């Protein structure tokens, strides 16, 4: 009877150093993150019926809530790149920028949720965004609805908005970020004039 040769384990087929080199080669360059500049301040002052206002977290469509920066081409298709990302969570950033812009316009106590003060806010602003992205044609579009609900008494208000801010398509993600900031500023002016009066 022929004896079979003993089978010995070969151990790791690829040395750990080689694994590390392969992983490093596949990772590629780190993604670039783009910060949105502050909403431009306005010399205009808008009178409001409320001394304090809470801004709830802005509701964004799934693609706009992503950290990737999306664009829409002429066919209507949306595309993004994992190499170009927003520097901050879009929903948090848009909410904060909107609250800051409203406070700048009205000069009353306005804050994003969670409400940081002991007294309740006299009114709550809620914004639901249907569309928020850049077109390859050079327009940053933001559409949706806003709602203003007084804490006690007062009149509920709501409205729709369609905002379009031009930007140079060759400017890339930073141009889109600047246009987004301007669109949020326009939204703040609309809500202050029509929703908080």
Explain briefly what this protein structure is.
It contains four helices and nine strands. It is of the alpha/beta class and 197 residues long. A hairpin with a 6-residue loop joins strand 8 and strand 9.
Please outline the major beta sheet. Answer: 7 strands, mixed
> What is the fold-level CATH name, i.e. the topology?
Rossmann fold
The number of distinct β-strands equals 9
Rg over C-alpha atoms, rounded to the nearest angstrom: 25 Å
CATH architecture: 3-Layer(aba) Sandwich
Distance, first to last CA: 100 Å
Alpha-beta content class: alpha/beta
Low-confidence stretches: 7-14, 16-25
Task: Note down, in words, how this protein is organized.
By secondary structure, the protein is α/β, with parallel strands linked by helices. It has a single domain (46-195), classed as 3-Layer(aba) Sandwich (Rossmann fold), CATH 3.40.50. Helix content is 29%, strand content 27%. The chain contains 4 helices and 9 strands. The chain has helices spanning 16-27, 62-65, 90-106, 172-195, and strands at 32-34, 52-55, 71-72, 78-79, 84-86, 109-112, 123-135, 139-150, 157-166. The strands form 2 sheets. Strands 2, 3, 4, 6, 7, 8 and 9 form a 7-stranded mixed β-sheet that branches. Helix 3 (90-106) crosses helix 4 (172-195). 29% of the residues are buried.
């Amino acid at each position: 009877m022929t004896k079979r040769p003993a089978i010995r384990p070969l151990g790791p087929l690829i040395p750990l150093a080689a694994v590390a080199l392969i992983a490093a080669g596949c990772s590629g360059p780190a993604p670039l993150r783009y910060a949105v500049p502050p909403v431009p301040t306005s010399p205009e002052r808008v009178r409001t019926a409320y001394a304090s206002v809470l801004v709830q977290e802005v509701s964004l469509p799934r693609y706009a809530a992503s950290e990737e920066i999306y664009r829409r081409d002429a066919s209507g298709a949306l595309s993004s790149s994992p190499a170009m990302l927003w520097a901050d969570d879009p929903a948090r950033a848009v909410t904060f920028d909107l609250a800051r812009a409203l406070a700048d316009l009205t000069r009353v106590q306005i804050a994003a949720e969670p409400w940081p003060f002991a007294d309740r806010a006299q009114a709550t602003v809620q914004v639901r965004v249907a569309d928020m992205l850049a077109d390859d044609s050079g327009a940053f579009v933001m559409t949706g609805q806003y709602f203003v609900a007084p804490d006690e008494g007062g009149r509920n208000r709501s409205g729709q908005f369609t905002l379009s801010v031009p930007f140079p398509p060759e400017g890339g993600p930073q141009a889109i970020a600047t246009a987004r900031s301007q669109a949020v500023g326009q939204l703040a002016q609309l809500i202050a004039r029509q929703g908080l009066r």
